[in-house]
Amino acid sequence: MDSSTDPGTPTDPAPARGSTQAVPETAPPGAAGGAAARDGATRNYDAVLDSAATEAKRWLDGVFDRPIPATRDIDTVKTAIGRELPQSGLEAEAVIEALAEAVEPGLMASQSSRFFGWVMGGTYPVALAADWLVSAWDQNAGMRDATPGVIAAEELAGEWLLQLLGLPADADVGFVTGATSANFVGLAAARQHVLDAAGWDVNRDGMSGAPPIRLIAGAERHGAVDLAARYLGLGAATLVPADRHGRISIAGLARVLGEGSGPAIVCLQAGNIHSGAFDDFAAASALCRAAGAWQHVDGAFGLWAGAAPSLRSLTAGYELADSWATDAHKTLNVPYDCGVAIVARPEALHAAFGVHASYLLTPMAGADPFEKVPEMSRRARGVPLLATLRWLGRDGVEALVTGLADNARTLADQLGALPGVSILNDVVFTQVCMAMGDDEATVAVGTRLLEQGRVLASPSRWHDRAVLRFSVSNWATDADEVRATVDAVRSALQPA
Ligand SMILES: *Cc1c(COP(=O)(O)O)cnc(C)c1O
After folding, report:
1. pLDDT higher than 90, residue 317
2. Is 333 left (phi over 0), alpha (psi -120 to 50) or beta?
3. What's this model's pTM, rounded to 2 decimal places?
4. Ligand 1 pocket mutation pick from 118, 175, 180, 429 by most atoms within 8 angstroms of CB
């Protein structure tokens, strides 16, 4: 066994730190001892990081060509890993290599340029590299004073994002795991604000006995909004009917808002997962303002339309909202664990998540990152966002977003020209919903596509029909891959 990576040898820094294990025998005392330990640490990290880089590159080299669905099930992967916790440890490089070998067949090639499932972005090289740095730095990004390096990067990422999206410059930004958490953060600030306005201190008195909050959402809101509401004790939303594109009905919203009074929160949507449609924010906003309702926008993937002038008609008026939720790990193609919560009323955000929160009394300036999100300790997940924005520049972000939308339109046009295929949505953004003449035929095409493994689309139901949904969210999807996708669908129209 290579002694530099053997966890049992005294040169290994991990067991030596704070344990009863002796410091390296060769280490002289004092400062030089630190240097020797550091050298040992470098050697220990070197080999295993090289192993990880080798395995990662091998995965990435093959990810565009391999079958997209996983070929090994959970049980088989567990057996391949080895089901028993071993009594003694393994060499670090061996762990990494065996892990990659056991797990890889159970991975889905969601980074493939012909992957259109759910709404999942791939990973830009620069985003992945920055993500690795975040782990290597291992900073706890909760506190401003302690870790200024990553805080600076995250604060800039937040400022740049607000500029790109045309959202209020004084809005506050929190980095969370994904849009589910980002919706939770937005709605937590909303709850804080509307209850405070009704004279209720939710932090002190909780939700029982609180003035009832009317939570209002479109019939085609994402399930993440329901979850966020549930975490906050807001119950189920009153649903406003959706139009044929899946957008909240403005007349319906006016009616529901007019039916009651008191604290209200309205959840709007930028990007319906089936149609890609955007709610009419300007009209909704006027109604919300008149009713004194907090306006929240779930824009997990669709908020990025605001970064492209040619698509900005979709987001018109969204800047008037009070909070927004989005993901960098979808449209922006950053690795997972990068959601963003944006709140235009920092004092409500701070009151909801700050430890020292005394509503409206604590100045927001210099609030620690942990006072904006549910986590106290967390990785510096805003850094890959910064790196990706820095690499793309404004033009690159615009090109990415318009490119995804253009490819979606081309895909829809070409799929729609295939015999028996209908496209059910107006393709305004990145989502394409196709169906065959009947549900059975649609499901059969989806099954055959999955068996072929060259293209992955999501089987779903929309407006009472079985559909196959294509979400064009990957940076690497280009005209050739769109053509290859259409070819694959064509061949899946008939039984093999
Ligand atoms: C994906 C998605 C969510 C949830 O986001 P996560 O990052 O999976 O937590 C919420 N809303 C919409 C519209 C989505 O597409």
Report:
1. yes
2. left
3. 0.91
4. 180
